[in-house]
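User: Predict the full complex structure for these chains.
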Amino acid sequence: MDALLQQLLNGLTLGSIYGLVALGLTLVYGILHVPNFAHGALYMIGAYVAYYVAGELGASYWLAMIAAAIIVAALAVACERLVFHPLRHAPPIHDKIAAIGLLLFFEAVVQMYWGADFRRLEAPSSSIFYFAGLTLPAQRVLIIVAAFALMGALHLYLKKTLAGSTIIAMAQNREGAFLVGINANRVAMMTFAISGALAAVASTLFAPINLVYPAMGHLVLLKAFVIIILGGMGSIPGAIVGGLIIGFAEALGGFYISGDYKDIIAFALLVAILSIKPTGLFSQGVR
Amino acid sequence: MTRVLNAFNHPATLLVLLGLAIGFPFVAGNEYQVYVMALAFVWAIAVYGLNIITGYCGQLNLAHGGFFAIGAYAVAILTADHGWNFWAAFAMAGVFGALFGLIVGAVSLRLKEHYFAIFTLCVGFIIYMLLDKWEALTHGPLGIISIAPPDGFGVVDFTQTRPFYYLVLGCLCAAVFFTRRLSNSLLGRTFRAIRISDDLAQSLGINLMRNKILAFVISTVYAALAGGLYSGVVRFIGPDIGNFMHTFDMIAYLLVGGIGTLMGPVIGTLIITWLTQAVQSLEEYRMIVFGPLLVVLVIFFPKGIAGSFQAWRARRNATARVSNETGRTPPSQADTSETAQPSATTSASAPTGHGTRGHSNA
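Assistant: Here is the predicted structure of the two-chain assembly.
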């Protein structure tokens, strides 16, 4: 029983991280209808910026997280301006190829500066809580609390502020949004900035548990795609619920089935679900 | 139209290119260059497969490198572990490619556009993971050594570079020939109709699912056979061959050469292979150049080298015809891609050309 609870807790941690990454991906998809393969690179760069600021410059973990969020957000906006904006009328294959080009470019640049070695980002607190037979490292608590706080903040921003509603409006109906005078460029840049910042925060939160290396974004990106397909592309609650489903499936599957193959579980789930229901679990109609 | 406009497709041009390829080992400075060329041809064959599903049929298959790896591993496992002869294993590689292509295609092609790309990306990753983790079958990260080379005939010994070079060249020619026949056939034009619009193709009575699966299976057979040849020439493989990077390389070759064109795959593959060879230090960090190159290509030159050349010829010929036959309106300058040629002036001279699909401007 304790083992099950412990795995559920691990699943919650994983699910929070995946949820944050998937949120950024789904926001961008909702606005531009581009599957942003470069999102995995933004995630990875976030971890490296945090590693640089905290590890090499010696700043605090929190400062590193803020720096990572700002720099990656700026980078994401630059990608939107320089790559996705010029391609907005291109055939659907082109923006995907461009996004993959960005992903591999960022990876190669990071690898050139830091090499392919695994690096470690120190956690802000190494204390461990014990509660009813469960082991709770502080970093995992931090991940869960921070992720849900961010999701809450994002929800408030989208629902309660004017700038946030423009994002929702454009996701719902592009032409309608133009008609009421919403500036599409501003919305697109804002969405990319938010998605980049979420990815950077997620990777900074996860880096002390996982390691920092150039290919760290691959699996997370693929899982985030699985999540947003499960949750319906463009759906925000879908990304959060999907993240938790994959997080739990992986933690439980890794524990009860096979640790070696735990990374395949998410994809096997996707294959199974899409074979039965090609439009995803929660989506309405084909986009 | 193809005969008039597409110089790359012209039989004479093809023969000249073939002659150059046959003569290459005699002018090459050393054995290594022949080896590099043979490897480039192997990749080009796989890129022809990608061209069919992505270039002609318009479905971005991100598991293509995975099927290449399946073919490579089929030959490796059958020859090294089960003592098969190379040719039997090579044929089985094609069978496995078709079989897995059929299974994956039947599931994945029910999805459209982004869903399909993401799904195949996941399939490619599953293939890579299995190659890496399923040690009983694939020897895991150690890889497989002592793969049998193709058995020779009489005095021909394929363990040497030159005979193997000609073997691969022959396979490449077969691939080009088959693609050319396919491209000019009704099936090829069916694939293009699907790329231009699913709905439009369906309204013409095209069975979408059956044709997409057919295109997918053809492409995976190409990839698996190329993988089998790769095993035969390199004679050592590891799970890294299933890495996503290889799919990306192939997309780069295809885009540089010209997506959806006949000679694009081989042009792109050769150019990038030799550029990478010229700057050896590029090998490890080639993505620093390739990544932005791809972005620039899709933004500014989405048709690649062969496609841009075709478009240029098409424009030139079109304006020449317009000046000859005054009174005709000049065709749209923007729509000169292979599928959207100005059909008014060309379809009369070549009724079987692609230009007959005039509705493609929609």
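The longest strand of chain A covers residues 128-131.
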